[in-house]
Design a protein that fits this description.
Metallo-beta-lactamase, Chain A; 2 domains; six-stranded mixed sheet; 7 helices; 33% helix; 23% strand
Length: 268
């Protein structure tokens, strides 16, 4: 297999940074798979078509890491241009229907063959309930979706199924694989997987300590806690910061450390 080919989705924003990465995996016998669907931007579609032509291959699979719009909403445009491709993801009822393609369901441990290359789907919830990572054991290459973002923290979208306890477990699962390379959906290639994965775990532990300190100091609402921890943050990113605070509070509740009464949080 050739090295995966990075194709930008051309969707920069406050939340996506420079925009999403999608990856073209070219196997033998003229077959290729695309990791994540992007947003249907015309430049992304053109660059994909050009690379398929240059590699003399046909798009056989589109493998979506999770159902958030920046990863999945480009599926209908891709399907229109590549009718022979199969579109696959972990089911998320209520979200799958937003993008009008015939989704094939992937479960944890399922494999997808691209010519002579095999990718395994790993259910890695936390950022979202349906999140998948894709693992090529032969080269120890891991497509990590939104589980890690070099230089940034990952939003745990609690009000839409995110779960911090699951996120911790998913990062630990990836660590155990001892990958050589991580290919994230945002940011550059990662050649120090253990360092970056451990860094994300420690960042979340640090945030948990900050949340505990804020509640001890009498800040009892999500908004007050977020403002104390993320002082000076770009206002456009504050909704994401509040989601992360909710995620930590819900984890503390599950751990038996905190409880909420009428929107006010207290330590036990």
């Amino acid at each position: 297999m050739k090295q995966p080919i990075l194709l930008a989705a051309h969707n920069p924003s406050a939340m996506t940074g420079p925009g999403n990465n999608t990856y073209l995996v070219v196997g033998s016998v003229g077959a290729a798979a695309l990791i994540d669907a992007g947003v249907g931007h015309s430049q992304h579609l053109t660059e994909l078509a050009d690379r398929l032509s240059a590699e003399r291959c046909q798009l056989r699979h589109v493998l979506v890491t999770h159902g958030h719009a920046d990863h999945a909403s480009g599926a209908p445009a891709l399907a229109a241009h590549h009718p022979a491709a199969a579109f696959s993801r972990f089911p998320w009822p209520g979200q799958d229907e937003k993008h009008d393609v015939a989704w094939r369901a992937l479960a944890d441990g399922d494999t997808v063959s691209v010519g002579d290359e095999v990718m395994a789907a790993l259910h890695t919830p936390g950022h979202s309930p349906d999140h998948l990572a894709f693992w090529i054991e032969r080269t120890r290459t891991l497509f990590t979706g939104d589980l890690v973002i070099p230089g940034r923290s990952v939003m745990i979208h609690t009000s839409a199924g995110g779960n911090l306890t699951q996120y911790f477990a998913s990062l630990e699962r990836l660590l155990a694989l001892d990958a050589l390379v991580l290919l994230p959906a945002h940011g550059p290639r990662i050649d120090t997987p253990a360092e970056v994965l451990n860094g994300h775990l420690e960042h979340r532990r640090m945030r948990e300590r900050q949340v505990l300190d804020a509640v001890r100091a009498g800040r009892a609402t999500v908004e007050a806690i977020a403002e104390s921890i993320y002082d000076g943050l770009d206002p456009a990113l504050m909704p994401a910061a509040r989601e992360n605070v909710r995620a930590h509070l819900e984890k503390l509740k599950t751990d038996g450390v905190a409880r909420a009464e009428r929107g006010q949080w207290h330590l036990l």
